[in-house]
Amino acid sequence: MKLLNFAATSVAVAALATGAAVADGHDTKTTLRIQTHYAPETVSGKLAAQYVEDIQAMSGGNIEVEMFYSSSVVKSVETFDAAATGILDCDMTGGGYQTGKNSAFQFVGDIMGGYSTPYQQLSWLYYGGGREAAAPLYNKYDMELIGWWVYGQESFASTKPIASTEDFKDWKFRSPPGMETKIFEKLGASPIVMDFTEIFTALETGIIDGADASGLANNVGLGLYDIAKYANFPGFHSMPSDHLACNKAVFDAMPEAHQRIMKVAMEALALRTALTFEKANAEAAATLREQGVTLSEWSTEELAKFRAAAQATWPEFADTPEAKALVESHMAYLTQLGLVAE
Question: 9, 42, 120, 150: which has the fewest C-beta neighbours closer than 10 Å?
Fold first, then answer.
């Protein structure tokens, strides 16, 4: 009888313990407000929506997300601060928008003239010391880096031919803030910093000759080639790392299971993004050629000129401890890959 009572008590204790674990991990609700600069009809906008569906499904509905597209709450460049201060919970734009805050964000946002493929860049983040180098930067501003999604090399949209560095002379184009403006000024271009959402109108009205907006397929989704009949493909100048970064206090308060779901789902989003754009960009290129858009593939010599200009500019932005640490980390890994300009 004592043994039976002991067994019954043990089962009851185990049941209570299991119930507590369920309450701690599986019954807790996490509600997040996330903003992205992408429009919902673009390829990246649809991929962001898939990420939201994934984390909600994997959490059994216990992670709930209110998603804001096209920078509908605050401007793209203000998303990071809006998350850090509690207006939003997470920023799904990119670190490149924060270079005015700390130049180190250039080297998590878009190193430019560095990696050739999304897979190389992601391997630096996850296996080349990138996450460890980037974490202190985000934490300094009360944010937590959840992960990256890299869609590959970007292509320009232009109303003038852009087949070589010579074509950059006096070329007015939309540029994101940061190092890109310095690189292209050295090549003779006239970069104009403006919000992502203003590009179409600026092209339409002739304020700019071209734009650094996104990858070829995303540019098609934005309607840029309805106006601009020149592009370069494959791209070479820029491969931004779009990030998901969340308010650190909000993230730290989440159950560990929810944290893990968000991070693992970002790895899935990263792979899905790279593979999707391999196909989407190739399809977009074929369609654009049929529509009479001129796509220029740059020669090895012209690509080398750009890489040299870009890598010569990196030290100018390594002016904070966080930036220096990131440049050193990138250079060590790029050297292993044989991608450092001679």
Answer: 9
